[in-house]
């Protein structure tokens, strides 16, 4: 928020400047004069208050008031004290500029961070590939847990390859702190890390720490790049294949699959099932503001699958037609809850109510030891302006006092709505998430 | 709710203005086409338009007989309902008016009967045996009198049809035979009740029972009716005034419903509560605004994309008056305050966020399109998932609705009540290939079953969903409930 830092110094500066002046200049005014002015000010304020009732003057007027004391202060310091007596009570009585309104939603304030929108101001040692990736994150060109994971790992590979070990140090000691961490921080400034990225990063750091000091730099680099390739192959590529294969088994002829938003693994499974000649229909449910499901619906329809597309307002009408609900995941929590695109919980709730099986497709790389009871503790808040429809009434929402826009990215689906999680290590119930997570993501614990 | 077009498209305001200038028949056609073209949408505008139209129908219709009036209203109502069966308020208002006419007519008849009783007593003292029968009409009804009334009504309507065939006697023409009709009535109406009961039950009325006058060749009860209708003619002026007054009362009720509901808001909203609502309902806005005068709380609004989001956005940013309804256009353009003006923190979010935020919500307040007799409601799409998410989180769900939205209909197939909107709101034609390959679904309304609702707040108080059928019974007459579907009657 650019407006955030602009007016903030104003009150402080004003307070600093006005108090000493007040003390020094006060004797210059006669008591009667002061009283009169104060009374007039009071009356004016009262009139204003009556006019606006309890509504505090919004937006533009305070901005003007804020500007004035600033100018006067500057003038005061240069032009001498002649006009001070007039100015002084004015600045004294001027209503305090209301603190700049926090437009973030209170429930999510702990999560709200400003998102970097451009690559302007990028520190000079950031690799161009990371800059590109940052922009892709920010514009949702690369969106979705798996896609972001893959792209990040590719960038890490480039970082390793372009890395030149400075003299008198080694890759093992220098790379993580001086190259990797700044780049991760840079990527976070565009969008917070996904759970899968977090898992991959801690794995990668472990790998770096395992690099033997005896290896030459070139060998070490090659080793790390190979490790990344293996990781991608094992944890994503093969995992996806395994998940798609076991999901395809579960799709029968005549099924109606309901899915929400877009998950690459759901899409892949459906396409694979279609290629295998299974006859089924798909209901793609979608929501604002990302409309990811449209992409999925388009892909499936182009492949020749019969697709019905509706937004979340049509969910209740379509859930009865469905036979299975397939959901993608952003992460699986250790208490068996599913963190996924905002709205997923509603779909799971409706499916549960209509007694339709809810199947989550999730690679184990998305498992986390973290737990969440509701969607507010752990979430990602996207910039509120993404909700504004160009040309719509919301364009001026920042000028409307006390209006906030709420745009979280994920919600948490209760474990009892989920019947099965399909992973590359098999199909498990939500209660098995922590066990599986320990097995695959934290090998050193064993 | 498809957003009403701005600009020069006719809306409720224009329609109401045109009502007085136009002949009734073209007004009816006009409203039918407005309803069909969805230029008047949403419950309240439809209700207001219907009530005003019926007012004109009653005022300009020259009727000699209450049953003819009822038929006329039924006919107009049927056409309106056919034009837009999913605007259930249209039918509600027609039924309300019908019920009101019946009440007035009954009252009138009772008064009249007692009049004529005294009349016949004075005019024909020799017919003392008739006292018994006539006084039954006027006095506290004995057990069989309702039956008698219903028979007269039935035959009356056939009589009215006959009247139509013969060109319908104008009001003035029917006045002179007033006295004769009275005299003829006296023996007819004054038949000993035992005798008329006997006629009722006997399959073939014996010619012997035909009274001396014998204007009607078939049976006495029809003659009875003729005379009744004549008598009604005399009082039709009063009756008409009463009916018009009754319709005006309904119009007033429509105007005041929101305020009456809002007046109760302080009982339901307390300080620092978090209230979730959706779409842009005027009733809900007023309800919240009224509470905002005294208390500070937070309102979360789900935007109800894609059918009502524009209105919702406008209502929170206060670009124009909340819904382009037109009822206000009649008066000076009054701008209602927005919630954020009233010092309330307003959080706007997408419909998908409902579940995520529900754990922090204290109360859900839903607006409604129509309420049906079982306590369920038809509301903007998305209401059902809100209500369900609320139930999962054990959050109370309050529905705010005027009694006029309460429909006596009980459809067993709820899907039939759901209107589907323009799929172009979801997938635009610019998307090309998508449009051709996809089936796109855009329901405008949701059915919310009664078990998801905790409380209804109407202009006559707060009720449990299970009690609504009683209110239905209070407001509508059983014989009017299916008037638009003759096969069900």
From TrEMBL, chain A:
MF terms (GO), sorted A to Z: translation initiation factor activity
Compartments in which it is found: Cytoplasm, Cytosol
GO CC list: cytosol
Record-linked Pfam families: IF-2B (PF01008)
InterPro entries named among the record's database cross-references: IF-2B-related, IF_2B-like_C, NagB/RpiA_transferase-like
Main location, first listed in the record: cytoplasm
Residue ranges with Polar residues bias: 16-25
Key words, A-Z: Cytoplasm, Initiation factor, Protein biosynthesis
Biased composition annotated in UniProt, kind: Basic and acidic residues: 33-44
Region (Disordered): 1-101
Complex formation: Component of the translation initiation factor 2B (eIF2B) complex which is a heterodecamer of two sets of five different subunits: alpha, beta, gamma, delta and epsilon. Subunits alpha, beta and delta comprise a regulatory subcomplex and subunits epsilon and gamma comprise a catalytic subcomplex. Within the complex, the hexameric regulatory complex resides at the center, with the two heterodimeric catalytic subcomplexes bound on opposite sides.
Family per record: Belongs to the eIF-2B alpha/beta/delta subunits family.
Protein's name according to its UniProt entry: Translation initiation factor eIF2B subunit delta
Classification of source organism: Eukaryota, Fungi, Dikarya, Ascomycota, Pezizomycotina
Originating gene: tif224
From TrEMBL, chain B:
Gene3D superfamilies reported for this sequence: Translation initiation factor eif-2b, domain 2
Family annotation (SUPFAM superfamilies): NagB/RpiA/CoA transferase-like (SSF100950)
Family designation: Belongs to the eIF-2B alpha/beta/delta subunits family.
Protein name: Translation initiation factor eIF2B subunit beta
Subcellular location: Cytoplasm, Cytosol
Keyword line: Cytoplasm, Initiation factor, Protein biosynthesis
Keyword Protein biosynthesis: yes
Primary location: cytoplasm
Complex formation: Component of the translation initiation factor 2B (eIF2B) complex which is a heterodecamer of two sets of five different subunits: alpha, beta, gamma, delta and epsilon. Subunits alpha, beta and delta comprise a regulatory subcomplex and subunits epsilon and gamma comprise a catalytic subcomplex. Within the complex, the hexameric regulatory complex resides at the center, with the two heterodimeric catalytic subcomplexes bound on opposite sides.
Organism: Lachnellula cervina
Start-end of Polar residues biased regions: 196-229
GO cellular component: cytosol; eukaryotic translation initiation factor 2B complex
GO molecular function, one term: guanyl-nucleotide exchange factor activity
């Amino acid at each position: 928020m650019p407006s955030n830092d602009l007016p903030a110094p104003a009150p402080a500066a004003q307070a600093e400047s006005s108090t000493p002046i007040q003390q020094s200049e006060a004797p210059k005014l006669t008591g009667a004069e002061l009283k009169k002015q104060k009374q007039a000010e009071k009356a004016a304020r009262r009139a204003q208050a009556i006019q606006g009732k309890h509504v505090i003057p919004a937006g533009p007027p305070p901005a003007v008031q804020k500007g004035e004391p600033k100018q006067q202060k500057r003038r005061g310091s240069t032009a001498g004290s002649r006009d001070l007596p007039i100015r002084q009570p004015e600045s004294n009585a001027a209503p305090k500029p209301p603190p700049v309104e926090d437009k973030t939603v209170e429930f999510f304030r702990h999560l709200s961070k400003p998102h970097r929108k451009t690559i302007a101001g990028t520190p000079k040692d950031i690799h161009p590939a990371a800059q590109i990736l940052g922009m892709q994150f920010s514009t949702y060109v690369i969106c979705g847990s798996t896609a972001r994971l893959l792209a990040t790992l590719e960038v890490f590979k480039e970082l390793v390859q372009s890395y030149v070990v400075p003299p008198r140090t080694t890759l093992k000691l220098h790379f993580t702190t001086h190259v990797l961490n700044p780049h991760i921080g840079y990527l976070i400034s565009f969008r917070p890390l996904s759970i899968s990225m977090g898992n991959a990063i801690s794995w990668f750091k472990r790998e770096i720490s395992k690099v033997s000091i005896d290896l030459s730099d070139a060998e070490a680099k090659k080793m790390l790049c190979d490790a990344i390739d293996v990781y991608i192959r094992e944890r994503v590529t093969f995992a996806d294949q395994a998940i798609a294969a076991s999901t395809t088994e579960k799709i029968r002829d005549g099924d109606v699959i309901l899915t929400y938003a877009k998950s690459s693994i759901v899409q892949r499974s459906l396409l694979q099932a279609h290629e295998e000649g299974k006859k089924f229909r798909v209901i793609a449910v979608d929501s604002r503001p990302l409309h990811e499901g449209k992409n999925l619906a388009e892909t499936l329809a182009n492949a020749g699958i019969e697709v019905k597309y509706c937004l979340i307002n049509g969910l209740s009408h379509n859930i009865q037609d469905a036979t299975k609900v397939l959901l993608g995941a952003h992460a699986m929590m250790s208490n068996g809850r599913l963190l996924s695109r905002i709205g997923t919980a509603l779909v799971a709730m409706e499916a549960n109510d209509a007694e339709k099986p809810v199947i989550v497709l999730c690679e184990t790389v998305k498992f986390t030891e973290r737990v969440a009871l509701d969607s507010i503790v752990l979430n990602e808040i996207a910039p509120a302006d993404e909700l504004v429809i160009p040309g719509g009434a919301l364009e001026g929402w920042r000028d409307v006092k006390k209006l906030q826009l709420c745009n979280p990215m994920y919600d948490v689906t209760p474990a009892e709505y989920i019947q099965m999680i399909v992973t590359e290590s098999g199909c498990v119930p939500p209660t098995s998430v922590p066990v599986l997570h320990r097995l695959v993501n934290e090998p050193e614990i064993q | 709710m498809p957003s009403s077009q701005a600009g020069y498209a006719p809306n409720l305001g224009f329609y109401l203005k045109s009502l007085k200038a136009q002949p009734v028949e073209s007004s009816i056609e006009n409203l039918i086409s407005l309803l069909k073209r969805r230029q008047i949408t949403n419950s309240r505008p439809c209700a207001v338009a219907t009530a005003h139209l019926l007012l004109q129908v009653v005022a300009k219709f020259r009727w000699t007989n209450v049953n003819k009036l009822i038929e006329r209203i039924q006919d107009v109502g049927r056409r309106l309902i056919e034009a837009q069966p999913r605007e259930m308020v249209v039918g509600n208002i027609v039924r309300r008016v019908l019920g009101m006419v019946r009440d007035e007519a009954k009252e009138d008849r009772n008064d009249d009967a007692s009049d004529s009783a005294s009349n016949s007593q004075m005019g024909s003292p020799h017919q003392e045996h008739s006292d018994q029968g006539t006084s039954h009409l006027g006095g506290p009804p004995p057990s069989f009198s309702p039956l008698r009334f219903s028979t007269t009504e039935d035959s009356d309507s056939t009589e009215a049809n006959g009247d139509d065939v013969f060109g319908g006697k104008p009001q003035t023409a029917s006045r002179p035979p007033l006295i004769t009709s009275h005299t003829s009535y006296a023996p007819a109406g004054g038949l000993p009740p035992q005798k008329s009961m006997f006629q009722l039950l006997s399959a073939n009325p014996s010619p012997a029972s035909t009274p001396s006058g014998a204007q009607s060749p078939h049976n006495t009860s029809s003659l009875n009716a003729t005379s009744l209708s004549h008598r009604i003619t005399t009082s039709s002026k009063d009756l008409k005034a009463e009916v018009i007054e009754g319709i005006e009362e309904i119009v007033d009720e429509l105007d005041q419903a929101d305020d009456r509901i809002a007046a109760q808001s302080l009982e339901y909203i307390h300080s620092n509560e978090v209230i979730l609502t959706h779409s842009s309902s005027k009733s809900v806005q007023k309800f919240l605004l009224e509470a905002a005068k005294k208390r500070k709380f937070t309102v979360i609004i789900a935007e109800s994309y894609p059918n009502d989001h524009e209105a919702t956005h406008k209502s929170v940013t206060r670009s124009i008056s909340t819904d382009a309804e037109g009822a206000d256009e009649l008066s000076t353009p009054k701008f209602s305050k927005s919630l954020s003006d009233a010092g309330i923190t307003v959080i706007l979010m997408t419909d998908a966020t409902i579940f995520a935020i529900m754990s922090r919500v204290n109360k859900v307040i839903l607006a409604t399109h129509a309420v049906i007799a079982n306590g369920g409601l038809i509301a903007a799409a998305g209401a059902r998932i809100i209500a369900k998410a609320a139930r999962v989180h054990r959050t109370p769900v309050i529905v705010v609705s005027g009694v006029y939205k309460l429909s006596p209909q009980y459809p067993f197939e709820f899907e039939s009540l759901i209107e589907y909107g323009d799929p172009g709101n979801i997938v635009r034609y610019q998307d090309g290939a998508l449009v051709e390959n996809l089936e796109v679904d855009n329901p405008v309304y949701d059915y919310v079953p009664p078990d998801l609702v905790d409380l209804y707040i109407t202009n006559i108080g707060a009720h449990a969903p299970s009690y609504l059928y009683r209110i239905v019974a209070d407001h509508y007459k059983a014989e009017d409930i299916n008037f638009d579907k003759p096969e069900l009657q």
